[in-house]
Structures are given as structure tokens and as C-alpha cells.
Amino acid sequence: MLKWIALIAFAALVVAMIVPRIAPDDPARWSADPTTATPPDSPNSYLVAGHDAVALPLAPQAAFDRIHAIAMDEPRVALLTRDAANGLATYVQRSALFGFPDYISIKFEPKGDGSQLSIYSRSRFGYSDLGANKTRVDRWLDKIGAGGGGGTHTTGENR
Hints:
Radius of gyration: 17 Å
Distance between the termini: 49 Å
CATH architecture: 2-Layer Sandwich
Strand content: 25-35%
CATH superfamily: START domain
């Protein structure tokens, strides 16, 4: 009996390591406009938009290029979609061990002489992200010079 339990546990581990890596990233499903996105009730996303959107002293295209460079400098990140004309892009970043994908959508809009950044990071698998999406968004905002915080994490800690 113990042998069967060990075999089933091993099979489950193998499936858990393979499925996230081979599941296709559907741009139609995972690209989102952060200004209109509604986070799920589960604590596995982080949204900075609306009154929390970040004002930047860069023109939208310059800000867009800067956040793209920041995103692509991160480990295990790939560009999923990019619509420069509308200031939208979605990236996928995979976790190191299991390859779980998180999707990060950004939008830049003109604001005065600069731009306004909205960003939405969410996990595809699992109920909780253990704060990974908030940490990522704060890190990207720090790198672009906007500082972190002010967003909405679905655990309600920043509401």
C-alpha cells in the first residue's frame, strides 16, 4: 500500500512540474487592459490602476520602452503581446522551480507632459501567490523610478 501511495505522489509531482510548462499562453485570454481589469477574489493578483495609477515624467513611448527593458531584464520573462499604438503589453514570467506562469499587463496613457502607468500582475495557477505579484510590481515600479505600493492586492491588505 505504501508503495502505491509513493508512486501516486511521484506521478503527481511529475504532472505538477510538466503541466505549467507545456500549457499554452493564450494571448486572447491573458492579455488584459489594466485600466478595465477586475481582479479575482483569490489572493493571487495585484493591480495598480485608476487613482493608484503611477504618473511618470516620461512620454508614453519612452516610458513604454523603459518598462519593456525592465521586464526583459527579469529572469524567465517573455513578451506575450505588445500593442505600442495603444500603450499596451503583456508579459509572462515563469517561476524558477515549477515554471508557473504569471501574466503582467501594462498600459501607458498620456498625462500632461508625461504618462500614466497602470499595471496588472496575476497568477494563472493556484489560489495564492504568496505576495509574488505585488513584489514584482513594486520592483518594476522601483526600477522605473516610480516607487512601489498603492495598488490593490486581492487579499485586501492595500485597500
